[in-house]
Amino acid sequence: MEPLDRYRPIVDDFEAFIDACERPLPSAVRVNTIKATVERVRTALADAGIAHTPVDWHDGLFVLPEDSPGANWPYFHGWIHGQEEVSAIPATVLDPRPGERVWDACAAPGSKTTQLAALMDDTGEVVATDNNLGRISALRTNTERLGATTVAVTHEDGRNHSLKPFGGEGYDRALVDVPCSCEGTVRKNPDTLEDWSLSHVEGISGVQKGVLKRAVEVTEAGGTVVYSTCTFAPEENEAVLDYVLDEAACDIVEYDLPLDHAPGVTEWQDETYDPSVADAKRIYPHHNDTGGFFCAKLEVRAE
Amino acid sequence: MSDQSTEFTRLPESDDEREDPERATREEVLDFWQDRFGVPPETFEERTFWERGAGKLWLYSGTPPSPVDTEGLGMTFLRTRQEHWKPTLEAVQRFGDRASKNVIHLGEEAARAFVAGEDRELDWDGDWGYLVVTHDLAGETEPVGVGLYVYGELRSQVPKGRRRDV
What we know:
The complex is a heterodimer of chains A (303) and B (166).
Chain A: H1 14-22, E1 27-31, H2 38-47, E2 53-55, E3 58-64, H3 73-76, E4 80-82, H4 89-94, E5 101-104, H5 111-119, E6 125-130, H6 133-145, E7 151-155, E8 171-177, H7 198-218, E9 219-229, H8 238-247, E10 250-253, E11 262-263, E12 267-268, E13 271-272, E14 281-283, H9 285-288, E15 293-300
Parallel strand pairs in A: 5-6, 5-8, 6-7, 8-9
Antiparallel strand pairs in A: 1-3, 1-4, 2-3, 9-15, 10-15, 11-14, 12-13, 14-15
Helix pairs in contact in A: 7-8
Chain B: E1 7-10, H1 26-37, E2 48-52, E3 56-60, E4 68-69, E5 72-73, E6 75-79, E7 86-87, H2 89-95, E8 103-105, H3 108-115, E9 120-121, E10 129-137, E11 140-150, E12 153-156
Parallel strand pairs in B: 8-10
Antiparallel strand pairs in B: 1-2, 1-4, 2-3, 3-6, 6-7, 9-12, 10-11, 11-12
């Protein structure tokens, strides 16, 4: 847990934080409302003898204490999809409406993409972009199994996303769930921290800034952009927000989240960030017994 | 994926707009679902049909300019340009609950075998060809995939990558 030591100054009850990071996390699934209701999934899991515990802040999520999803009827029918609790946060914060046009900038393997399609009652359009062909095949497989008819998959670098194939039309909303150093996933993948390096954190933050800036550019004035990572590093979180506030026409806005969390940090080492980054939320493993996460909501301004 | 093209072209509405005689039209696709499975055409009212490569049709909710160059567009839906058109497992799982013809219902054990990819002999006094296969799940009938019924045998058409021991 060594790379996490540097967060001692910003994490409350640091020992509890480290203890939580060392505990494994059980599997969780999200109900795919394109194909099933929460009630039918509950019945199907019970009929299959699969123990499932509801999550209190989101009625479409179940923790499976003894199983991993895969070989059972509700999975085969695309009624459920393996997705951690915290990973379900950004799509709910983006709150897309039926019929809208939404961009998912770093979409593979598609948990959040299909969640967006479901929140939109599978109407409108979700353009799902990824820059890795191998991951795109997983994205397509998941989209198909979950029966989404609104997802168009594009292979490109989100920093250079083109509106041309779709006639130049902008978006109502964009989800920017960027590749990151994944520190918050250590409970699922204990190896995550083995390859940690500050140079990776600093390098990837450049990519994150580019994708977020592009998302603000392609979203219509008054539209919403959500920025999220599964890491604790301020270089990948608040510093990226601070950059886009200077470079693109947007503001950080407040939002409600029914999970315990800490505010975004405005100071880190030698840096000071725009005070509005405090409206971003940091979700720590010891607060709700989940993975770690970071999520901010932005509103796009007219130029 | 065997087909490398990433260009999707929208199906012509009807025969009048068709330039390639081999190409299916929207009208024919709607007729196929209605004639073969009794699925009402209005089921697909809000959706567009696209072809990528030869005969692989996709169903999508948006209306981008045609052709559009993407890796995926909605869901794979129907195979045409062969003697018998064949719906995909995804299309049947999503829209097969509206089917009223050529639907075969399996018991639990037969449904498990079907999903595992096994063929089995059984009696069926309806048409031969592609059928919507259903079973009971969580107290209701649910479409599970596509079967091919010939010579007293239901052949599982579940693609290899989707087969499971449930």
